[in-house]
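3.2 Worked example (two chains)
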Amino acid sequence: MPKSRNTFSSRRSRLVQRAVHAGWAWVQRTGAVTAERPGRLRFGAMGAGTRLAFPQGTVFGEPWIHLGDHCIIGEQVTLTAGLMPDLDLGAEPILRVGNGVVLGRGSHVIADTTVTIGSDCYFGPYVYVTSTNHSYDDPQVPIGKQWPRMEPVEIGPGCWIGTGAVILPGARIGRNVVVAAGAVVRGVVPDHAVVAGAPARVVRSWTPAEGWQPPLRTPAPTPIPDDITPEQLLALAELDAKSLEALRATENAHE
């Protein structure tokens, strides 16, 4: 019995889809930037294991951008040093990113003056960090034409910056701080705090004497035991994948 045209078209569509996905995966691998394969980007420093995913966002002022070891820079992340490309910004770096930093997809780090991000910071997607803000002192001049204000920004090590957060000029964020999604941070944030809101305020903090105040509402997660081997973790992952496949097969059988 001849196969229907729809079956042939469906098979061809699947083959084309697979080819497109395979081609895009190749483009992503080839377009990624590392210290060994920087492409057109020549950073002042780029540590071992650091990777900028493709496609990259706007990047300029690379000689004044220092990236630490084992950083993950997501797709469409903007990294800039200076107000515009091709400026001479002096001998010292303007944007410093520590070791093990993760910048989520679509985030922006705008360093017109010094911005420092400590090691082991994790940014969700679409975080915006800037050392520059518009001024509006003169009511007769369009705001975009007035000279901006610049203040250094410092984010301490070990912080988690939630999706869509905004870090404004002059912010000084301490160590191991949680910035809630959508928060707008200015001024000084102490170590071991949780901040939320616009403008952000401290909603929880930790001290050696009192622990977390207000107390945490959920129990601490159970860490992976020290005696678990990588092979055992892989076996668990495969078991989870097989269980998921079995569940999908059961659901399909009942459709």
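3.2.1 Second chain
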Amino acid sequence: MMMDDGIADAGKRYEDSLLGLGAARLDRRSFLFGSAIGLGALGLAGCATSDRVIPAEVARMYGPLPNEKFPIPAVDLGKVDPKYYRQTVRYDSKEAPGTIIVDPGNYFVYRIEGEGLATRYGANVGRSGFLWSGETYVGRKAEWPVWTPPKEMIQRQPEAGKYARGMPGGLGNPLGARALYLYKNGVYTVYTIYSTSDPETIGTGVTSGCTGLLSQDMIDLYSRTPIKTKVVILPA
């Protein structure tokens, strides 16, 4: 159950995590994760790093998306545990079809399909101290969304001021290709389900409470998720 009066505290923790970057570069991963991690992984997407045999249908599912506004490279599947590949699984639930269930303890996101089935996606989730649970809904959604740093971050890191009116969408934007903004009682919770171009983060707790899917998975989920869709965050 979500700590309703804790949303503000969670939001402050989210901002504080961003404010703790010090002299870190203003790159997508340091913005999102609250740490000075570089962009090197982005340039490796699509490179072979493993001798693992990837099924053809999986390779197609995570192949490049050249027709996007900002072309998306293929996922380096050698960096993703196969259990996190998108698949249809048995998942008994009383929730209505279309409901999204985030299981941070197992690094999965489910979309309920009905008749005991769900589409399951591998995810990254909040790191220790940023995990939360409860019921929300999709209050807003955006393609190649703009990201705007909090005022507090700009005060501590004046260099972020150039994004005061928003960082334009693109592969370098912390939110990636798509974002689902989670609301409760008409108020944005400061949390999102977003796109990541960093395959090595799938199956890890690295964010400030948000949930990330590989861009190809997020585009699939986004296309089937209308506004007001119920989102359940399970306890970790």
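3.3 Remarks
The chain has one domain: 4-233.
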